[in-house]
Amino acid sequence: MMSAGEESGKTGLCFRARAVTRIYNSGAAAVHALRGVDLDLPDGELVVVLGASGSGKSTFLNILGGLDTPTSGEVLFRGEDISRADQRQLTEYRRRHVGFVFQFYNLMPSLTARENVALVTEIAEAPLSPEEALAMVGLENRLDHFPAQLSGGEQQRVAIARAVAKQPSVLLCDEPTGALDSATGVRVLEALKTVNDSLGATTLLITHNAAIAAIADRVVIFADGRVREVRENADKRLPGEISW
Amino acid sequence: MPTWVGALDRKLVRELWRMKTQALAIAFVIAGGVAVHLLAAGMLSSLQETRRAYYERYLFADVWAPVVRAPQRLIADIRAIDGVQAATTRIRVPALFAMEGMSAPATGEVLSLPDVGEAAVNRLHLVRGRLPSPGQRSEAVVLQAFADAHRLEIGDQVPATLYGGRRRLTVVGIALSPEHVYAIGPGQFVPDDRLYGVLWMRRGALAQAVNQDEAFNEAVVRLSRDASKPAVIARLDRLLEPYGAPGAYGRADQISDAFVSSEIDQLATMGRVLPPIFLLVAAFLVNVVISRLIAVQRAGIGLLKAFGYRDRDIVGHYLKLVAAIAATGVLIGGVAGIWLGRGMAVLYMEYYRFPFLLFQANPADYATVIGVAMLTVMGGATLAVRRAAALSPAEAMTPARAPDYSRVAGAWITRLKVLDQQSRMILRQIIRWPWRAALTVAGIAASGALLIGTMSMMDGIEVMIDSSFNIANPHDVSVSFVEPRSRAALFSLAGEDGVLAAEPFRVVPVRLRHGSREERAVITGAPLDGSLSRIVDTLDRPVQPHPGGLVLSSDLAAKLRIEAGDIVEARVTEGRRPLLELPVSAIATSYVGSGARMRIEDLNRALGEGALVSGAWLTVDADRTGTLYDRLKETPSVVGVGLQADAVKRLAAMLDENLGRSILIFFFFAGLIASGVVYNTVRISFAERQRELASLRVLGFSRTDVSYILLGEVAFLTLLALPLGAAAGTALAWYLAHAMSSDLFRLPFAVAPATYGAAGAVVLAITVAASLMVRRQIDRLDLAEALKTGE
What we know:
A: alpha/beta; Rossmann fold; 6-stranded mixed beta sheet; 4-stranded antiparallel beta sheet; 7 helices; 10 strands; B: 6-stranded mixed beta barrel; 22 helices; 20 strands; about 20% strand
């Protein structure tokens, strides 16, 4: 359906969303999670998405990640419409282009760090080796540890290595530091930053934590199912320079 | 929901509704165990009660006293015997019927009815028509089974040969008789409705036909409640001795009742042996399933504790959940059990041609089964809930730490390069929770074993039939003469067109006595080197009598408490009635058949009547049986013709109908239990790993990839379970064969390869079906949810 890179040169846009709505249930019980979102996200940027609970940011991220489809409106990924794709095409899309990092890591407890990464590289087209990916997040010495033998921050870095090992076009992170303390969270953000710089994957990072916005190229603020504000970050900091 | 229902109970109801499929699957397992129990109990008590009532209402005799010919006036003396409640005399003669459209001769008998009214003993149940009119010489009532087999209707004619005299009898009624639930002829192993007919005529008509005016050749007696049967038999024997009485006998030796009783006994044994195993297996499986079900609820339990619910509230809450499921199962099983028990009883009623059915469901059976089912289920659940409630609330409230796989890291798995990551997950999952995997394997194996165990009984029956027909009695036809004849009769039979081989036999009815024990039996004399009929043991080895010695079947030996080497006293009950003292040279343990064997020369010498034969076993040319049968029908000296090939088919069909029907039902429930277990196993595995599977879907794994991880584990465990189930099934088959066997009946232990194949196929099919059902849930996994929840 889509092939990476072909369109990117022409538009320079990774995502283009127009009038995106998402309504759960119907009738009286209808919940309007998105009420018409317009947003352009250029390729390669590190984007921090802020917003209160229920502002629609997670719903939007799910749609970008191919986990959900909008009720109406259009979402283009490098010029291809992913809002009308069927389940099979979405699986293919996630498999080729998207890396996910979850709040609770979602590692397979029965696989070692290396194997967790290999889980993804085995189905990817031009992956990094699991060892390379883990080295990128500073875990080259923890290859054969099981999740239960790793700290929370280490587990989250394995998750990042797993997400980037397939060299995704898009890296989607939903509250990646949400379950971690400040110092550990910073190390995870550093890993994300490294990955964003070296692979050039468009990285979306959802958070409640406004402090993290400082490291972004672009900050998107959601409120009430709409984009309230988009601003480019003039004063970009390194993860090591922030804390919360 | 009404306001008085507490929050916890609402949760209960909603949870039950949410897990309805799974709850129903568990309920089915319980229902399987309960239903099998109740249907067996209901069916058996109904059959036994119906048979008792049938015998009672139709005045079934307690004692039969045959004579050669006795004067009618003796009836007064018989009625005067202490303990005799009612007695009647009658004429009973063997007959041949030349039925249209059948080349083989039908044999049978004609019995007399009183000249007026109904018999005082052994009353008929008229299905259609009427009794013969007094004075009408050619009217007869026909046994329903024979009438049905030949499509006889009121007004049809039956050509009968009575003592060489031929006459055409007109059917005026079609009846059932408590004496002829099974009608079986001499030389026949198996009842064949086509080949054996019973007719009733008015006494005057029959007496004239066979020249028995003012005489009778059988007295039948009903005893009063507290009468002593042996005493009455002894009095009858003394009274009738001068009239050529071979000796009176009771119901145990009445061929129809002996047949029915032994069949119902076999059903009863099966009904005693199998259901407890079902209930046990069901209880075990439900325990396994429920403890896992509750383990999945861990977070919810922690939450309730955090709210301040006490351990016992929580235990109570989950026990209610389990009780609701168990009660549903017991209810389904109870209703299905009664309904099926009744249905089965009706089927058997038709099979036995009982005129009515008294359905009986014993409340005590229900109480026991329901009690056992609820207790085992609740007992197992209590343990599981207690374990779960012991969790500290804080522990349950925080996102679960990743379970530690490092202890079972299985360095070897890490090094196995051929394995993909999904297969590693499957393997580690199994190794990490070996106990859980073992229980799953045990559950599937146990249900497979139930399937094999039930089916093996049919295999055993097949082995038994093969052993007793093809190996012990490989003849095609057995011909019995009216009276023993000289060997010339054998040679003339052997010379008939189409006869390939003939071997003589001599049979004499005897009373065997050893110490204070006495049994009626038949001694069969056969040629030593004969191959057309012999006694074989359970290993198919022939058991030959020593010169002058007797081989006894193990059932007779057990009843008489005889061992090889003992001397048994045999009082011959026909002809000159000599008293023989015979050494028992061997006890033969064979699958079917009861009796005693000697060499024919020894028997004839002991009887001192010369070299006589009672009949012959023949092998015949299958293409020329027609002419042979025609000749036999016309031979007045031939009283019985047994056709082996027909008999084998009949026996197989009969056992199929009788035991097979029950076995089929048991098989169905074994399948139901297997389905419940496998579905739950897969479903709970899914619940335990829902989040993991959703994560994989998010990572770009297709539904098929994800299904592989879940269903691959189940498939792997199922494959492990198959050989184990085969082993357990073999053991169960062995146990069933032994439990079902007695001195009278021996069920061979046999499991046909096809049985393993069929059981394996059923288990696999069930696994596939259950997997497909859960696969639908994989398809509906909420991917977004996986990103959110910690647990």
